[in-house]
Design brief:
Blueprint lengths: L4 H16 L6 H8 L3 H13 L3 E4 L5 E4 L8 H9 L22 H16 L4 H6 L4 H8 L6
Antiparallel strand pairs: 1-2
Helix pairs in contact: 1-2, 1-3, 1-4, 2-3
C-alpha cells in the first residue's frame, strides 16, 4: 500500500485538530507542528472541508476545527476525502477491472486487499490516533516483528 504525501499530511493535520479539541487551529500552526508546507496544507484542508471533515473559521481567532467529533471520523474518511477510493487498479475500482486466463483471480486479490485496508482504516478514528489508544487489533498487528519488515 502506498500513501501519497497528500494523504500523509491530511492524516497528520487531522490528528493535530483532534488533539486541539474545540478551538480553531491555523494552517500555520498545523504546518509548523507537523513540519509541512503551509500552502500545500491549505489545499488539503480545503478538500477536507468540501468533504465535511473540517470547518473553517474566519477572523482573528480563526482557523480550522473538525466538523464532527474525532471519534466519528475514521482514517478511511480522511483518505477518501483527499485521495479518492481506498484501493484502485490503474485508476479503476477493483470490481470494474477484469482479467482473463491465468490472471483472472487477480481481481479477487485486489478486492480482498481493499477489504483488509478497510478493516483497519475504517476502525481507527482520529481520536484513536490523537490519544495513542489504538484498537487492539491494530496494536496486535503492529506488535508482530514481521510487520516491520
Amino acid at each position: 500500500m502506498r500513501l501519497s504525501a497528500r494523504v500523509d499530511y491530511a492524516l497528520r493535520a487531522a490528528a493535530e485538530l483532534a488533539a486541539a479539541g474545540d478551538g480553531p487551529t491555523t494552517v500555520g500552526e498545523l504546518a509548523k507542528e507537523q513540519d509541512m508546507p503551509p500552502k500545500y496544507l491549505e489545499n488539503i484542508l480545503l478538500q477536507m472541508r468540501r468533504a465535511g471533515l473540517v470547518r473553517g473559521q474566519r477572523g482573528p481567532e480563526g482557523g480550522y476545527v473538525l466538523a464532527r467529533p474525532a471519534t466519528e471520523i475514521s482514517l478511511a474518511d480522511v483518505i477518501r476525502a483527499v485521495d479518492g477510493p481506498l484501493a484502485n487498479v490503474r485508476g479503476e475500482r477493483p470490481e470494474h477491472v477484469g482479467y482473463r486466463g491465468p490472471a483472472e483471480s487477480l481481481q479477487q486479490v485486489w478486492i480482498a486487499l481493499r477489504a483488509s485496508e478497510r478493516a483497519i482504516l475504517e476502525e481507527v478514528t482520529l481520536e484513536n490516533v490523537a490519544t495513542g489508544a489504538l484498537p487492539e487489533r491494530v496494536r496486535s498487528l503492529s506488535a508482530d516483528p514481521a510487520a516491520w519488515d
